[in-house]
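Curious: can you check?
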Amino acid sequence: MADGPRLKIDGGIPNQLARAAQAAGALEEHGYDGGWTPETSHDPFLPLLLAAEHTSRLEVGTNIAVAFARNPMIVANVGWDLQAYSKGRFILGLGTQIQPHIEKRFSMPWSHPARRMREFVSALHAIWAAWQDGTKLRFEGDFYTHKIMTPMFTPEPLSCSLPKVFIAAVGETMTEMCGEVGDGHLGHPMVSKRYITEVTTPALLRGLARAGRTRSDLELSAEVLVATGENDAALETATAAVRKQIAFYGSTPAYRKVLELHGWGDLHDELNRLSKQGEWDAMGSLIDDDMLAAFAVVGPVDTIASALKSRCAGVVDRVLPIFLTASETCVNAAMKEFRQ
């Protein structure tokens, strides 16, 4: 069970610079707790400078920044500056991406992702300790080494806390590691409530225990696909889009274990085969109502808030609902009740 009296609600901040400030301001105005940028077609960090400038309360973070496309010193520096400028509201959300992207898109090394991520986060903490407390920097790991830090390259100490580090994880090994070294866990839309309670949370607790920490030392987040609309036609369109999105995720080997938990492991093979043929509509038709209910919240606008609370309250600490097709008016109407 999640600690804390209130379920936090997060929203997305576009990673296009021209849109980030207005979107972040709107999230704060509408009472959201946090706003996240993805690393897709644009850099995830730059928009957060604008988001921080145009808000005063909203937490702002990356969900996710690709850790292995960078090194700890580069990430430590940008995280430090965003934390200082936002006055303590920045969250560094890190993910691994997958091997082909790291090697063939970013031209960076890939090996032992959970071990490498643990070391990446440990290196961040060592660098930040050197900057904040004057601790001698002498980090020597299997993947990263940081042993030089002179006054010219040392930023001013923070007047707020160090940045929180959230880690994206689905598999048990990565999730346990998140429990050991992370300040928070970033969920994925292709994760059901059952998977969170039976797999994710126990793995986090094992990691926390190994590090001598408790559940209150870590925030657990979830992303939930939402299908809704102002009328029946809009709801039908949204539902079809969500089915296709679930099918896309289900075709990826990383999420086969999630399907297997529900007894749908064989579906992955068919979805994977169809994805290679570009049969996206056919893939969506394979997602039946039970699967839809496992991975999404579906219904009229006035049912969404209560459905999200029922799904997430007491299970996670914060939730990021993902509306694939709903209008801004529709989203605001759905989430207004959630925030009351």
Q: What stands out?
A: The chain has one domain: 8-234+300-335. The CA atoms of residues 38 and 63 lie 5 Å apart. The first strand starts at residue 8 and ends at 12. Residues 113-133 form the longest helix (21 residues).
